[in-house]
Every structure is written in structure tokens, then in C-alpha cells.
């Protein structure tokens, strides 16, 4: 016989615990809610104490306005808030909290005590719950502000407690939550005490405003040498104001680390904004490379919905495209200002930036050289070049695609093992960057995407690469794509065995090669979905590996081969990353440079 189905009305306590799981995922979520409350209370000093990754104790103490006696008994009730009273308020929100659910959920999953003294009252009050559930409310001693003590989080929900990670991991999650707050509230004195040791003591920065970034704090918090070179970003228009800092293009990196986005003071995550930043720099950094940034977006509250995520980690823009293009524009402006500023300085002989960092007209290798050729190929574009006063007379014409391609080579030779110099009967001289040219050739070949064009090579012994779990997923996801261009492989456990590869790639460091391809994706698990968007970037990365390198000695036939293949390219004038491949000079221009008129 079938059992009778019983509809249970859940006891309120259980309902609260279920709801709590959404807001309070782990100790870090408690820290976030408490800090939000202190900020909403206008605190100028906030002290955070963490014991055992927050699992044993989280205590946040502030000097804010405090809670009036008449309210203190209700702050732990669900949906009790002093911040909004109507739906209309929700649309004009500038406080961090608004749902009135933080304290009530924290209380549902841990042991909580709150002491507060309201600014306009003489005596502080405390509230806590006994194990029996009985609420105790009584007067207490405290000079001002509020302190909330949260102990034994999820102690009453063992299933949940079990899912917490080690104390160290939980502490790191807490730091991830805290650092953004430390960054955008330079006006607040924050102290973080971990297991009785002071980890951060950040006095308020004089005359600083909330919702702004100060380099001083940035320096202390990011602890990166590149902070000093970060560029100031600013934009104001169309209901959107953007401020903050973005890394100098020469400080690009493989990983998307130290990226902070705030929308109306709220730390959020948004891939679209990160992409817009890269886009704003795309002419200056290699494809797929990332940069660090701290961006503060202030958007009219009715143009952004903050109520879309249980922990408020995401927002929804009414018009995302507008926001993204504002970000892109602000970053582009910051970079362009910085580069032209330097060129001006150079003209006056003043150098404030180490020479290796200077973006100068012919300084193609500006930025750190990290040995990766993707990174080496720092980008130049016609526009970027045309900004410099240096080349205004000749170089722009040199990029013109309209002029006739010379055909009869009089002389061809290599200089510095990296450039091919070609003298043509047509009174033209070309200097070809051998790596950029070879990259362009391979890139276009790959783009045409016919494996028939690429000679395949079966490897005698399959080449074995150990990969991370996530990279293995990427290899599975991209199998069709890689097969199409000539890579064949088997996957076994955490190893990939390459059995065939296009002949161009035979000498490639396969491990690095795949790593670089995967680093183009925000999420390898979805890389096959992104393939349309990433296809060209992938080819560019591949081309970089499967091509003649800089520093490689070339035979005459090889030089001629590069030249011939290059002029057959759709765009022979730059490498796939946008760096020029050819520098052309007419004899008349050379003459002009020597003021030779005959
Ligand atoms: P919300 O922040 O969404 O209003 P909470 O549950 O976080 O909801 O807090 C409930 C109420 O308790 C707040 O609206 C506020 O009035 C009061 N409160 C909580 N923490 C503080 C604090 N540190 N200082 C002053 N008031 C506080
Ligand atoms: Mg709150």
C-alpha cells in the first residue's frame, strides 16, 4: 500500500534556517552583512575580529549611530529594516542593506549577541538569545556604536557546518569579502584581527571620501609593484560616473587577478565589465591578456537593479551596453592620456617613468618581457602610432594598403636575426619583422581553416601532456575544433596524448601552447560555446607558436618564402595581434630624411 502523503507545514524555525542558507553561505557572508550594517550606520571606525576562519567567532564593532532602544528588540525579526518602507524606496536605494533579513538569518544559524548605543540615548542595550530560544534584552555598557558577536556558525545545522572548508580557506573567503570594502571606504578606519593578531590596521585617509579609491590604500592592499603605475580612470555622462584605477597596459597578465568592480558602492562581479576594460585596452595589450583594475561605477539607482542575487554579488543593468561602452571609453581615454603624456615628457627630456616602461614610437618591446611571444607582441596600431609627433611625416602613409606591391627583389637579407630587409627595383625598401610576418601568415592559414592547407605530421610516439582537470575538460570541449585544424589526441585520466599535429607546430611546447589557448577563456568549461568569439584569438595564439621566431637565423630561400606568403595575405601589414609586420620606405622618403634634393 502506498504511504499517505502528508503535507507538513514547516515550523518557522526551519523556514528561517532554509532561507538563511541563501543569504548566509559561510562565515564570509556574515562578515559582509555586518560590515554593510556598520557602513549603513555611518561608521568611521570598524573593527573585525575573526577566530578559526570565522567558524568560532566573528565580531564586528563600529562607532556608527547605533540602534534606538525601542528598535533593538526587533532587529532580529525577519524583514525588519530601518532602511526602506516601500517599493519606491527600493528603486532609489543607496544603502547596503535593505531586505531586513541579515540579522534574522544570522540568528537562525548561529549564536548572536548585539550591543548598541544609540547616538541620542544615554544607555546602551544588549540583546541575545538563550539556548532555549528565550530573548534577553537588557541595558549594557558601551560608549557608542554597535558590536555584533556571532559564534558557532551553523552549530545548529551540522549538515551545513560539514560543508565549510578549512579555517584558512574560510578566512581567505572573508578576506576576499573585506578587501573591496577596505578599498572603497578610505574614509573608514578598518582593523582586522585574526586569531588575536592584527592583520590590517588601516587608518582613515585624511580628506578622503567614501566610494573613492586612494592609491595609498591600494598600495597597502594589493601589495603589487605595478600599483604605482596604475592609471586613473574617469568618466561622467548619461547617468553613469566611473572612477578608479586600471593597470598600465605594460602590466598585463595571464590571470584575471585584482579586479574590483563596485556599482553604487557595492562590490559585484560582472564579466561584461572586465571585458569592456580589456576592450578599452585592446590596442595596447595582447589578445587574451588581462589587467588589474578597481572601478567604481555610480549609476542612477533606477538604471540598475541590485535585488537580483541573494548575496547581492551581482546586479542587473537596465542598459548593460551603455554601461560597458562607458567603461571601455573611460579606460581607453586613461591609456591614451597616459601614453601621449609620456611622449610630451620625452620631448622635454623629462623622464618620470623608467625607460623600459615608456611607450615610445618605435619601442616595440615596451613592457616586461616575460619570454612569451604572445606577451612580447605588444600592440601598436595605426592610431596609436599616429599619436606620436615622431612619425607624422612618414609612417602613416607607410601603412597604406593601396600602394602597389613591389615585385622585383634586388636585395634581401636579414639583420639582427629578426628583421628582413628587402630592397626593390621600384625604389622601395621594406623592413619586415620576421616573427610578426610569419605569425600573420600562419594566422591567415589557420583562419581559412582547412586542414588540407596545413601539412599534418603523425608523431612517432604520442606526445604526453599532463593537464589539470579543468584543462582536460577544455580538451574534450574543443576536440572537434582541434581536429579540424589537425590536432589528434587521446585523453586518459589527467593526460593528453597528442598523436598528430600540423607540421608548423611540431617544435611547439604543447603544454604552454594549450595553456595559452585556455587562458583566453573566462571559463574553460564553456569554451566550446565561446568558440565563435574566441576563434580568432585562438588562431592568433596558435600562430604565435607555430611560426618563425625572432632571433632565428633565416636562409635566403626562407626569407623569400616569408615575403611571398606575406604579400598573399589579406592583411600583410600587421601581425594578428595588431603589431606592424612591415615598415616601408620609399627612396624619396629616405632622401628627404637626409635633406637630399637631388
Ligand atoms: P537591513 O540591513 O537589510 O536593514 P539587517 O537585518 O541587516 O537588515 O538589520 C536590521 C536593522 O538593524 C537595520 O535596518 C538597522 O536599523 C539595524 N542595524 C543592524 N546593524 C546595525 C549597526 N551596526 N548599526 C546601526 N544599526 C544597525
Ligand atoms: Mg543589513
TrEMBL record:
GO CC term (a single one): mismatch repair complex
Residue span, MutL C-terminal dimerisation domain: 411-554
Keywords from the UniProt entry: DNA damage, DNA repair
Domain DNA mismatch repair protein S5 span(s) in chain numbering: 218-336
Cross-referenced SMART domains: DNA_mis_repair, MutL_C
Pfam families: DNA_mis_repair, HATPase_c_3, MutL_C
GO MF annotation terms: ATP binding; ATP hydrolysis activity; ATP-dependent DNA damage sensor activity; mismatched DNA binding
Signal peptide as annotated in the record: none
GO annotation, biological process: mismatch repair
PANTHER family attached to this UniProt entry: DNA MISMATCH REPAIR PROTEIN MLH, PMS, MUTL, DNA MISMATCH REPAIR PROTEIN MLH1
Function: This protein is involved in the repair of mismatches in DNA. It is required for dam-dependent methyl-directed DNA mismatch repair. May act as a 'molecular matchmaker', a protein that promotes the formation of a stable complex between two or more DNA-binding proteins in an ATP-dependent manner without itself being part of a final effector complex.
NCBIfam families: mutl
Family listed: Belongs to the DNA mismatch repair MutL/HexB family.
Name the record gives this protein: DNA mismatch repair protein MutL
Originating species: Candidatus Dojkabacteria bacterium HGW-Dojkabacteria-1
Gene, per the UniProt record: mutL
